[in-house]
């Protein structure tokens, strides 16, 4: 294989490296990966053909490569799903790894020169193939999952900051490949300079992995802390509900104990006094009565808590709940889902003036727990692509907690909204079957 053919093969492999994160991590809009790959290859063939046929100088070819990059990114925007920031991150990361591949080619050729019976171009082809295979494993089994999780959960601002590292690293490597690590520079530089630049490349790659892993770890820790905090709130609410129940039982016991005294008192009163006495007694009984939403104690206590909050804030609260004392879904799952939905509904109502309402419907139907929460809101929805963002300053994780706990096959979570009403719908499968 002559050097010209080797150059074509190396460029083709680098094109595959640049395409790999896009094709592996993103879903095409119309499921036509073959057509997208064909368009990308056609663009590459046009670029290479113009260089070969017209003998374009390296400076002019650099401009053509920039145009090719813009056209390829345009293909990425049109044919693939995902936010602009996610596509940009993957595209810049792909170029970063392609430049790392070029650096590795130069280093391997410099080291192996004179030790093997291969030309410079043949060494580059072999190293590029090995790098591309390893890179595919890295993208398929490590990068895809982490990038999808990061860009599904991070805010737009955080995603923009995440884009900074691969951009800066790409610039550093690009400058290095055209200065101290170019083929001409390697011929006159010593081993120390080459090893320094190789260490820089390795450090950039390691930092790339560490940054993504660290951000995910921080997010998981934050989500866990939020769920622990919510669990503490649930325990506190259950304790309060338990104390209220004890008080209620004690009050009923006292009323029963005093019932005979009430009868004797009524027998010795005239009609007007009896009416006044009975009205006072009724008022006392009403004060001790509590609203019962369902037979499930955990859900009932949670609904009582939010009903009291809604009453204090002047929000109309309606709950139509048909749950038995024991349903095949654990109390923690029930409380996290219902609690987060009600917390989001209360938060939306607090931001609204005028008539405000919350409507809760829960019932067990055909082996599934069906849940619907409707609430009034101000008509403003923050979105990052197709993902709805929290309006809280701390970027609340309520919806993320719901999605995380609804992880069984058959679980569903969906939202619908118009200008005045926000609706959240949840289906939870029978956990006893899992």
Describe the protein in words:
- The chain is α+β, with helices and mostly antiparallel strands.
- The protein folds into 2 domains: 3-226, no CATH class; 292-434, 2-Layer Sandwich (Heat Shock Protein 90), CATH 3.30.565.10.
- It contains 13 helices and 7 strands.
- It has helices at residues 3-25, 33-54, 58-79, 84-112, 120-153, 156-162, 164-177, 183-188, 191-267, 271-288, 297-313, 331-350, 398-405, and strands spanning 316-322, 357-365, 368-376, 382-384, 387-389, 412-417, 421-429.
- A 5-stranded mixed beta sheet has the order 1-2-3-7-6, with helices on one face. A two-stranded antiparallel sheet has the order 4-5.
- Helix 1 packs antiparallel against helix 4, helix 4 runs antiparallel to helix 5 (120-153) and helix 11 (297-313) runs parallel beside helix 12.
- The longest helix is centred in the middle third of the chain and has 77 residues, at 191-267.
- The radius of gyration is 33 Å and the shape is elongated.
- The protein starts with a helix and ends in a 5-residue tail after the last strand.
Provide the descriptors you would attach to this structure in a database record.
434 residues; alpha+beta; Heat Shock Protein 90; five-stranded mixed sheet; two-stranded antiparallel sheet; 13 helices
Set out the fold topology.
Layout: H1 3-25, H2 33-54, H3 58-79, H4 84-112, H5 120-153, H6 156-162, H7 164-177, H8 183-188, H9 191-267, H10 271-288, H11 297-313, E1 316-322, H12 331-350, E2 357-365, E3 368-376, E4 382-384, E5 387-389, H13 398-405, E6 412-417, E7 421-429
Parallel strand pairs: 1-2
Antiparallel strand pairs: 2-3, 3-7, 4-5, 6-7
Helix pairs in contact: 1-2, 1-4, 1-5, 2-3, 4-5, 4-7, 4-9, 5-9, 7-9, 9-10, 9-11, 11-12, 12-13
């Amino acid at each position: 294989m002559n050097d010209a053919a080797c150059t074509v093969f190396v460029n083709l492999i680098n094109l595959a490296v640049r395409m790999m994160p896009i094709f592996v991590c993103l879903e095409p809009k119309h499921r036509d990966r073959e057509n997208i790959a064909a368009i990308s290859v056609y663009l590459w063939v046009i670029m290479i053909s113009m260089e070969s046929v017209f003998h374009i100088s390296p400076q002019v070819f650099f401009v053509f490569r920039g145009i090719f990059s813009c056209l390829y990114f345009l293909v990425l925007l049109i044919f693939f799903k995902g936010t602009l920031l996610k596509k940009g991150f993957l595209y810049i990361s792909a170029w970063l790894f392609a430049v790392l591949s070029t650096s590795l080619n130069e280093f391997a050729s410099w080291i192996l020169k004179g030790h093997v019976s291969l030309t410079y171009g043949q060494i580059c082809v072999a190293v590029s193939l090995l790098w591309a295979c390893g890179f595919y494993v890295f993208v398929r089994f490590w990068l895809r999952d982490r990038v999808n999780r990061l860009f599904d959960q991070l805010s737009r601002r955080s995603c923009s900051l995440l884009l900074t590292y691969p951009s800066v690293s790409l610039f550093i490597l690009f400058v290095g490949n055209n200065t101290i690590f170019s083929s001409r520079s390697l011929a006159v530089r010593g081993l120390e300079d080459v090893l320094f630049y190789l260490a820089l490349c390795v450090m950039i790659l390691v930092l790339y992995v560490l940054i993504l892993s660290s951000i995910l770890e921080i997010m998981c820790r934050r989500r866990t802390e939020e769920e622990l905090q919510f669990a503490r709130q649930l325990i506190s609410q259950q304790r309060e509900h338990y104390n209220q129940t004890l008080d209620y039982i004690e009050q009923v016991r006292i009323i029963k104990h005093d019932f005979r005294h009430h009868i004797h008192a009524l027998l010795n009163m005239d009609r007007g006094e009896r009416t006044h006495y009975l009205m006072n007694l009724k008022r006392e009984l009403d004060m001790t009565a509590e609203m019962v939403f369902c037979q499930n104690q955990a859900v009932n206590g949670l609904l009582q808590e939010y009903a009291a909050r809604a009453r204090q804030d002047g929000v109309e609260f309606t709950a139509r709940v048909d749950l038995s004392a024991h349903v095949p879904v654990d109390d923690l799952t029930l409380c996290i889902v219902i609690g987060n939905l009600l917390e989001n509904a209360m938060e939306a109502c607090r931001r609204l003036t005028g008539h405000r309402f919350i409507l809760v419907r829960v019932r067990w139907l055909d082996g599934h727990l069906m849940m619907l929460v409707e609430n009034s809101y101000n008509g403003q929805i923050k979105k990052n692509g197709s993902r709805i963002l929290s309006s809280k300053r701390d970027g609340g994780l309520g919806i993320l907690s719901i999605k995380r706990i609804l992880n069984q096959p058959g679980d569903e979570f969906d939202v619908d909204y118009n200008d005045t009403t926000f609706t959240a719908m949840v289906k939870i499968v029978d956990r006893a079957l899992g």
